[in-house]
Amino acid sequence: MLYDLSLQQNDSSQTIEQLVLNKVDSCYQHAELHLNRSFPRPSINFKQRGRAAGSARLQTNELRFNPILLQENQQHFITHTVPHEVAHLLVYQLYGRTKPHGKEWQQIMNQIFDLTAKTTHQYDVSSVKGKTFTYACQCTDHQLTIRRHNKIVRDNIKYICRLCKQSLIIKY
């Protein structure tokens, strides 16, 4: 079966990265069989950072996977995240620019890969969550990422609370 990969923690014959590479190839072969056409294979790396499990770079035909989330969620990652990202590249090859999780992408996920078309993962991201800074408005505290904090400090950007419409101020 296409989606049944048994992962063994102590199996040194195949690394987890190799299983991802094999799954990518398997997804492409499966799509080519069903769609009766060939697709160029993407470049693949394991350099995705942050809370994203993976990303598809459409113009450069590249797949990026998060090595930490892969390690922590091996079976589900290979079964769901890999086809999710491959589907983005396939849709781009077939239709050009579309909505990222639009009907074309959903169709590939449902009809070609026989998977539920979920747009986000539910992985625990505590191990990849970056540093946050506490800011406050009149109604509550907000946790801002280091990127947003740096924009405030460096570029004098202001963020506004969606509820009370007041500017956020850092809490020390």
Question: Could you explain the architecture of this structure?
Answer:
With 172 residues, the protein is an alpha+beta fold. It folds into 2 domains: 16-112, Zincin-like (2-Layer Sandwich); 132-170, no CATH class. It is built from 5 helices and 6 strands, in the order H-E-E-E-H-H-H-E-E-H-E. The protein has helices at 16-35, 67-72, 74-95, 103-112, 146-155; strands at residues 43-45, 54-57, 62-65, 132-136, 141-145, 169-170. The strands form 2 sheets. It has a 3-stranded mixed beta sheet. A hairpin with a 4-residue loop joins strand 2 (54-57) and strand 3. The longest helix has 22 residues, at 74-95. The chain is elongated.
CATH superfamily of the largest domain: Metalloproteases ("zincins"), catalytic domain
Query: What percent of the residues sit in helical stretches (DSSP H or I)?
Result: 25-40%
Let me know the largest β-sheet.
Answer: 3 strands, mixed
The tally of helices reads 5
Cα radius of gyration in angstroms: 20 Å
Regarding quaternary structure, what we see is single chain
Tell me the total number of β-strands. Answer: 6
Global morphology: elongated
What structural class results from the helix and strand content? alpha+beta
Order of helical and strand elements: HEEEHHHEEHE
